[in-house]
Amino acid sequence: MEYDATSVISRCRGFRRVMELARTAASSSCTVLITGESGTGKELIARAIHDFSRRNTGRYVPINVAALPSELVESHLFGHVAGAFTGATHNRAGAFRIASGGTLLLDEIGDLPQATQPKLLRALEAGEIQPVGADIPVPVDTRVIAATSRRLEDMVRDGHFREDLYYRLNVVEIHIPPLRDRPEDIPVLAEYYCYRHARANDKPVRRLSADACLKLLNYPWKGNVRELSNVIERAVLFGQGDTISADDLNLRDDPADALASTMPLHEAVDEFRKKHIEKVLRIADGNRNHAAELLGMSRATLFRYIDRYELKGFALNSRNGTGSH
Ligand SMILES: Nc1ncnc2c1ncn2[C@@H]1O[C@H](COP(=O)(O)OP(=O)(O)O)[C@@H](O)[C@H]1O
Ligand SMILES: [Mg+2]
Question: Which residue range forms the structural domain that includes residue 108?
Answer without folding.
Answer: 5-177
